[in-house]
Design a protein that fits this description.
By secondary structure, the chain is of the alpha/beta class. It folds into 2 domains: 42 residues; 253 residues, 2-enoyl-CoA Hydratase, Chain A, domain 1 (Alpha-Beta Complex), CATH 3.90.226.10. Helices cover 49% and strands 16% of the residues. Strand 2 and strand 3 form a beta hairpin. Helix 1 packs antiparallel against helix 2, helix 6 packs parallel to helix 8 and helix 10 packs across helix 11. It is globular.
């Protein structure tokens, strides 16, 4: 059963009327309600504020990394473990073909349902997850296979065990190693891009965001708690943090916004997967036209330009 957010209440009502008309076989009513639905979608989603976009990024029905992998990747073979501690289920690594192009896909997976969410640690990787991602990238580099990374995490897991096993070092190691990897790297924020947990698989030649995704240095809840000690300030914090794709593109922190369906990727997962795949293949074609030296130089210039300003 579809989940609707409070600002989607009119859309839910029209959708119910539409389904009822279809069940009755009333073609005139179906056409009328379909037209009303399209108008309401344009009205509602054409004027979303930053907090509403954040809620869409966290929507429980939103496609996760494994959903995109199942839609896009043929002959998918999963790679497990970091060869040091264990297999972190919050990060998944698959090798396969996307439209005939051999690709390594690395994604953060949140999980659905209580049991699966616990298994995936709510999409919050431990250090062994990032080390697994690094192992997969090194394997891809060895065989000259491009890498697609799907970012979707509230942040790296902040537990005592994670800190004891070197959480910050694992994240820093990925930033360092990915910066000099000699293969095309493309990263896409598909939902939440939380702090270092997102950066650890976000260093790439191309960094894009889905229309309804966010990328932040801290969660709005954490920001409001630190700055104002007031949970009612979450909406204010969301706006102040500038975490939407439009804000980040304006500040040249990302390369592109991927136009998922206007009503949201969760309403049409197949179409969302198609536009994501198209962006990946088009970006990869551009990157493959470069020599390795050119690729590395452009990546270096891209990374060192982050945060640059002039007085």
């Amino acid at each position: 059963m579809a989940t609707y957010l409070d600002f989607e209440s009119k859309i839910e009502s029209i959708q119910q009327d539409l389904e009822s008309a279809k069940a009755r076989g009333d073609e005139y009513a179906v056409e009328s309600f379909a037209s009303d639905l399209d108008k309401e979608v344009q009205k509602t989603f054409g004027s979303l504020n930053d907090y509403q976009k954040l809620r869409l990024a966290r929507h429980p029905d939103r496609p996760y990394a494994l959903d995109y992998i199942r839609y896009m990747l043929d002959g998918a073979y999963e790679i497990h473990g970091d060869r040091a501690f264990r297999d972190d289920q919050a990060i998944v690594c698959y090798i396969g073909w996307i439209d005939g192009v051999k690709t390594m896909v690395i994604g953060e997976q949140k999980g659905r349902g209580t049991k699966n969410k616990i298994k995936r640690n709510f999409g919050m990787p431990n250090p062994e997850g990032y080390r697994k991602a690094l192992r997969a990238v090194r394997l891809a580099e060895k065989f000259e296979i491009p890498v697609l990374m799907l970012v979707d995490t509230p942040g790296a897991y902040p537990g005592l065990g994670a800190e004891e096993r070197g959480q910050s070092e694992a994240i820093a190691r990925n930033l360092f190693e990915f910066a000099s990897t000699r293969i095309p790297m493309i990263s896409i924020v598909i939902g939440e891009g939380g702090s270092g947990g997102a950066l650890a698989i976000g260093v790439a030649d191309r960094l894009a965001m889905m229309r309804y995704s966010v990328f932040s240095v801290i969660s709005p809840e954490g920001c409001s708690a630190i700055l104002w000690n007031d949970p009612e300030k979450v909406e204010t914090a969301t706006k102040a943090l500038k975490i939407t794709p439009q804000d980040l593109l304006e500040h040249k922190l990302i390369d592109a916004i991927i136009d998922e369906p206007l009503i949201g990727a969760h309403r049409n997962k197949k179409e969302a997967a198609e536009v994501l795949k198209r962006y990946y293949l088009e970006s990869l074609a551009e990157l493959k036209a470069l020599s390795v030296d050119e690729l590395l130089e452009k990546r270096y210039q891209k990374l060192t330009s982050v945060g640059a300003f002039s007085e």
